[in-house]
Amino acid sequence: MRFLASPANLDEVSAALQGEGWALIPSGLLFERLHADATQADALHTSWSDLPPDAHLRDGGHYRFRRHSCFVLDTARSELQQTPHRAHWQPVTYNALHGGFERWFEPVDAGVCAHPMWQALLTQLGGLLARLKPTPSWYIEAHQFRVDTTGGIGRPTPEGAHRDGVDFVAVLMLERHAIKGGETRVFEAQGPHGVRFTLEQPWSTLLLDDERVIHESTPIQPLGEHGWRDTLVLTFRRGGFQGP
Q1: DSSP label at residue 29
Q2: Separation of alpha carbons 189 and 139, rounded Å
Q3: In a domain, 79, yes or no
Q4: 124 with 205: CB under 8 angstroms?
């Protein structure tokens, strides 16, 4: 598994994802694809300051805040529809800590879901991924996360290195505020090789082929009194949402 140079275009992104099982999209390339800019991105990001606590953490922590909503993308028509609100569910084979039961979170704010950049993001990423794994529809789960340093430490992936039981995962880094740590680690699911790096650029995007790689992020600690790490995680699955 190689650490690849920053791609110049989305064809290089697709080639990296196909070859290595993961790829990075720099924010400038993402904004170009979405016909968006940093001003629109900043406006969308403001909603991360209004995330309710994650009430399902089984390690006893109080460091994670989140919202969750689901969508279906018709890849032929590039039409995105939000589904009725539903629980997030994973089998214990993919999430030993939080799998096996329904987790209900507050939905993503309606204004966020209707935002042109949000709509373009889900549609354009879905179209890019459908070039690698053709499918009539993507079943997309969107997770807004803020992990903070309440108690001195925050854990972006308390379940450890894992797969999500989907086809693709997109992790978008929105902000790192007064923290250290939060290193991203991507490893072959069926091999010994991996890479380690830190997502720092706002709106830089990590794409993962969930069938081929496992991933995790290391804990964060504050550089001052209080810090946090904001991300948007999107999962793309063929055939339907995961459920009991």
Answers
A1: H
A2: 23
A3: yes
A4: no
Residue 5 included in any domain: no
Q: What local confidence, expressed as pLDDT, does residue 39 receive? A: 95
Question: Residue 161 and residue 157: Cα distance in Å, rounded?
Answer: 8
Give the Cα separation of 104 and 45 in Å (integer): 22
**Domain CATH for 201:** 2.60.120.620
Residue-wise DSSP of 60-100: S---EEEEEEEEEEETTTTEEEEPPP--B---TTT-TTT-S
Range of the structural domain that residue 83 is part of:
10-237
Q: How far apart are CA 148 and CA 219, in angstroms?
A: 10
Per the CB < 8 A criterion, the answer to whether 67 and 51 are in contact is yes
- 3-state DSSP helix/strand/coil % of the chain, to nearest 5: 25, 35, 45
Q: Beta partners for 168?
A: 209, 236
Distance (Å) of CA 174 to CA 82, 165, 219: 23, 24, 17
Burial (0-12, 13-18, 19+ Cβ within 10 Å), 26: middle
Q: How many CB atoms lie within 10 A of CB 96?
A: 13
Closest CA to 207 of 75, 21, 33: 21
Looking at residue 105, its pLDDT comes to 96
Q: What is the pLDDT of residues 110-142, one digit of tens each?
A: 999 999 999 999 999 999 999 999 999 999 999
Contact 30, 205 (CB under 8 A): yes
Domain count, the chain: 1
Report the SS3 class of residue 103: strand
